[in-house]
Amino acid sequence: MKKISIVGATGAVGQEILRLLNVRNFPLSELRLFASPRSAGKSIPFRSESIPVEPLKLDRLAGLVFFAAGSSISKEWIGPAIEKGCVAIDSSSAFRRNPDVPLVIPEINGHALASHRGLIASPNCAATILLMPLFALHRKYRAKRIVASTYQAASGAGAHLLQELQQETRAFLEQRPYNHYLPFPYAFNLYPHNSALRENGYVEEEIKMADETRKILEDETIQLTATCVRVPVLRAHSVSANVEFREPFSLEDVYKTVQGVPGVAILEDRAANRFATPYDATGKDEVFCGRFRIDPTQPNTLEFWSVGDQLLKGAALNAVQIAETIFK
Ligand code: NAP
Q1: Strand, coil or helix: what is 214?
Q2: Domain count, the chain
Q3: Which parts of the chain are beta strand (E)?
Q4: Which of 98, 106, 124 lies closest to 13 in space, CA to CA?
Q5: Which of 51, 79, 217, 246 could pair with 142 in a Cys bridge, judged by C-beta atoms 3.0 to 4.6 Å apart?
Q6: Rounded CA gap, 7 and 54, in Å?
Q7: Phi and psi at residue 106, to the nearest 5°
Q8: Residue 52 CB neighbour total at 10 angstroms
Q9: What's this model's pTM, rounded to 2 decimal places?
């Protein structure tokens, strides 16, 4: 039985971590919840208790700490927390690219957990939804180059953007004037991902997908180019992928290989022209994929479609699975 702390307990990811600890019967002796001073006075029900939300204080952090409050909080607090004996699982991007920090999707590279020194990073949500159907194929045919396009939900940017999309959509339909939070309307619109723009024209989210793919698949030779787009979907990211492999493959073997992957489900009905949508994936643990097809324009190249709840496998579920694995 462990003491568990959640930093960012009131946020989109933190709330899902809490729910999963409960529904997965995670064994814990004490739960401590932390958020910003804005949440002072709140308490959150958990099992038979009502747990107060505390402001972040080092002497109150205890046991296994889920960090789900953003990169700057992780950068400031994870070092001191580890020094006082905590183990941290970080959902932010703060340490993902640090070579001393394992970046783990348990189904793919769970073995990397053995080398942790008090900190494990949980990967980028869009990368996770791409990699869950891809990793078993990569092991067989070795991915050489990946072209990924994402369709990312509002909740991927946190509770605030989710609320914003709901309110703006209501105002749009009721033809009420609305003061957009973004510099353009979001309801019934979409936009290239607005993480920091680099000099080469890629945004940070696109670079994360490339770097994290190489680290998780443990293959520095993989080339990945991504275009990340935010769409007006409440929850669940979709990814369209074009993957050139080093080895030839058959479509039949692709389906057989992906069918057996834990945490992945093929959702398609070709006769009905029906494939996975964000609605199918919302609230579900699995990443749904399908529409595997051979790209006729280039040898050894596969196209597929993948959809997953980025708050679950893309964040909270993955973090809880990491915790479950290290306590096994
Ligand atoms: P969010 O909904 O905006 O929640 C942020 C949380 O951090 C809230 O609980 C907030 O508390 C808390 N917080 C903010 N400032 C704080 C402070 N000074 N001290 C303590 N707590 C503070 O964000 P999120 O979407 O859950 O994302 C959390 C982290 O997970 C981010 O690093 C994000 O990049 C990563 N992530 C998110 C997703 C996703 O799908 N959303 C997927 C993968 C990774 P208040 O409620 O009091 O403001």
Answers
A1: helix
A2: 2
A3: 2-7, 28-35, 43-46, 49-55, 64-67, 87-90, 119-121, 143-152, 191-192, 223-230, 237-245, 264-266, 268-269, 274-275, 287-294, 301-308
A4: 124
A5: 246
A6: 9
A7: -50, -40
A8: 13
A9: 0.98
The Cα diameter of the chain in Å comes to 60
Pocket of ligand 1 contains residue 224 by CB under 6 Å: no
3-class SS at 307? strand
Please confirm, yes or no, whether 86 is among the known catalytic residues: no
Catalytic residue among 86, 193, 237, 289: 237
Q: At what angle do helices 125-141 and 251-259 cross, to 10 degrees?
A: 120
Q: How far is the CA of 158 from the centre of ligand 1 (A)?
A: 6
Residue 205 pLDDT:
98
Domain range enclosing 11: 2-122+315-327
Does residue 242's CB lie within 6 angstroms of at least one atom of ligand 1?
no
Closest to 71 in 3D by CA, of 195, 235, 201: 195
- What pLDDT sits at residue 182? 95
- 10 Å Cβ neighbour count for 198? 11
237 catalytic? Reply is: yes
CA distance 108 to 143: 15
- Calculate how far, in angstroms, residue 191's C-alpha sits from the geometric centre of ligand 1: 22
Residues 149 and 25 in one domain: no
Q: Which residues of the chain have pLDDT under 70?
A: 1
Residue nearest to ligand 1 atom 34, measured at CA? 92
**Are residues 114 and 147 located together in one domain of the fold?**
no
Which among 7, 71, 13, 64 is positioned nearest to 39, based on CA atoms? 7
pLDDT value of position 327: 86
SS3 state at 147 = strand
Ligand 1 atom nearest the C-alpha of 53 is 47
Q: Cβ(17) to ligand 1 under 6 A? A: no
Mutate to test the pocket of ligand 1, among 16, 56, 91 (most ligand atoms within 8 A of CB): 91
Which residue's CA is minimally distant from atom 19 of ligand 1?
36
- Which pLDDT value is given to residue 40? 85
Q: Decide whether any atom of ligand 1 lies within 6 Å of the 310 Cβ.
A: yes
What amino acid is encoded at 67 in this protein? F
